[in-house]
Fold these 2 entries.
Entry 1:
Amino acid sequence: MRVLQHVLVVLLLAGALSACGSLIVSGQAQGGRSSATASAAERRDAAITAEINRQFVRDAQISAFDVRIDTRNGVVRLSGQVRDTKAKQRALELARSVDGVRRVESSLTY
C-alpha cells in the first residue's frame, strides 16, 4: 500500500510541475516576474510541497491523501481533514520543519 501511495504522490507532483511549466511557456507567469525568476520560485515551492508530502506519508498520525498542501512563495496552506487535534498539530509541526517554509496557514479540520 505504501508503494502505491508513493507512486500516486510522484504522479501528482509530475502533473503539478508540468502545469507550472505550461504557464511560464504561455507567458502567464505570475506577478510580472521574468520566466526564469518565476520558474525558480515555482520549483522551490514545488520542492517544499513535495518534502512536506514525504513527511506526511512517513508519519503514522497523518494521512497524506486527506491533506492538501499548497505552497506559494514559501507560504504553505494546509487544508483537508485529519483524525484529531494531535494530528493537526503534528501536520503543522512537520510543515514548519521543512527548509524554505516562511509561514504555515491551516484550515485543517477533524
Entry 2:
Amino acid sequence: MENKRTRNGRDRQGAGRATTNQPSSTRRATASEVRAQDRYARSRYGAQPANPTKRTATSQPAADDAAAQRLSRDEYAKTHKHKKHGKLFYAGIAALAVVLIGAGAAFAYVQVLSGNLHAGLGNVGQYLVKTNMTKEPFYMLLMGTDGSAERDESGDFGDSYRTDSIMLARIDPVGKKVTLVSLHRDTMVDMGEYGVNKLNAAHVFGGPALSVQTVSRLAGVDISHYAEINFDGFHEIVDALGGIEVDVPMTIDDEDAGGHLDAGLQTLNGDQALILCRARHAYDEIGPGDEYRAANQRLVISAIAKKLLSADAASMASTVQALSKYVTTDLGVTDIIGLAQAMQGLDPSTDIYSAMEPTTSEYIDGVWYEINNTAEWKAMMKRVDSGLPPTDGDVVDKTSGTILATTGDGGATSAGTAGDGTGAVKRGGTVAIRNGNGVSGAGFDATERIQGLGYSVNTSNADNFDYRETLVVYNDPADKEAAEAIVKALGVGKAEQNANTYLFEEDFLIVLGADWQ
C-alpha cells in the first residue's frame, strides 16, 4: 500500500528511484544500459533496480544499502559533513555570460572553448528545436553538475551523472529580457521506459538528450539550446570578476555549505558566493532549503550579470578563461557572437525575471518527491511564454527576507520595494485602457501586460481611432515615474501629465495609438 505523508522541510538527497511499474518498452535495453541502471539503483541515491525489461515489486536492496537507508537524514548528514561538497553549481552563469559579453569577448570565449565546447553533448541536437536566436525568443535548458568531488556518491556512470541545479531560461533578444525558472531536482516525472523518477535522474539515464526531452514535456515548450557547467569553476569565475556585490538576505551558518556568511550588502569572493549558493541547512527552521538555495542562486546570477556588463577588458579576459574550462553547450561560434550582439542593452536591474517551479512535497514509498502543482505551473509558463514576469509580483519570504521570485528587481539585492520588471512600484491601482487605433483586439495584450504590473484594468474604445502615438496619462505628478515604467512595459508611447485634456477616474489612462501592434 502506498505510504504518503506531508514533507517536513528537511533535506533530501539524490536523483531518486523508480517507484511504479514501468510501461512496456518498444525496444530491449542494451547490456550497457541495464548495467548502468542497476549501478544507479544500487547507489545511495537510488533504490530498486531500474531494469526496463524486467521489474519486480519484491526487489530488495542489499544489506549494506538497507542499513544506510535506516540512517536518519541528520545521521546521514553527520556521516558526510567532513567530505568536500561539490554538490552545486547552476548553469545560469553560463547562459548569462554568453548573452551579456560583447562580440569581441564572445569571440575570444569560443576560441578558448573550441576544444571542448561540444564535449559530452551526445545526441542532444536531435531534440533541440532551432529558432532564429537573434530575432525571436527561445528557451535554453541550463544544467549545473558535479563532475568531480563526489561522483562516487552521486550515481555517476561514465559521462552521465546527476544534476544538482536545473533552470529553464527564456531569452528574448528583441525585448532584451531573460527569464530564469528554477526546477526542483526532486520533481516527480514519468521518464517512459525508465519509469517514474526524480527530474535530476534524467541526466543519469540519458544525459543531455533525456534531460531536454523531460524538461520540454514538463514545461510544455520547445527547447532550442542547452548549456551545462561544472561547479568546479564557480569560484574562479567570481574571483576573475573581482567579486560580486550581493545583499545577503540572512546570516548563514552552514558547515555543509562551507561556513559562515553575514547578512547585508557586501562584496563576495568566489568561496563566499559558493556558500550562498550551496546553503540549505541554514533554512531548516524556516522551510524547504532547496527553494531558498535556488533563490540565492538566481540572486548571484544577476549579480554576476551586472558585473559582467561593467567589466574591463582584463577582468573579462580572466572570466572568459575561467568559463572556458567548465562550460559545455551546443552553441556555435557564430551563434554566440550573434546572440551577444543582440543582447547588448540588457539591464540586469530590470530585465531579468525569475521564479521557482510551484510544487508540494510528498513522501511516497520511502522517497521524497516534489509534486508539480499543475494549474499554477501552467499559469506561470503561460506568463513566461508571453514575455511577462513569471509571477504577478515579487514573492518575498517574510522570515528570511529572501526573494523567492522576482519580476524585475534583478536579484542583486533582496531589500527594498518589490519590483515589477519595469521599475514600476506595485500599488494595486487602476488603469483605463482605450483603443485609439481601431485594431480589433488591440487592448488584449496591453491588458495582460498592465495586469502583470499589479493594476486593475478596464477597457473600451477611445473617442476616435486617429491616435498615432500611444499615451500613458496621469493626473498626480507623483505618478510620473510609475507612468514612465508603464510606457517601458508597453514598449511604445510616452507618458504625459493630464492638462485637463482627458477625463478619467482611474490612476492612469492608456490610449493605444497606431504604434501599438
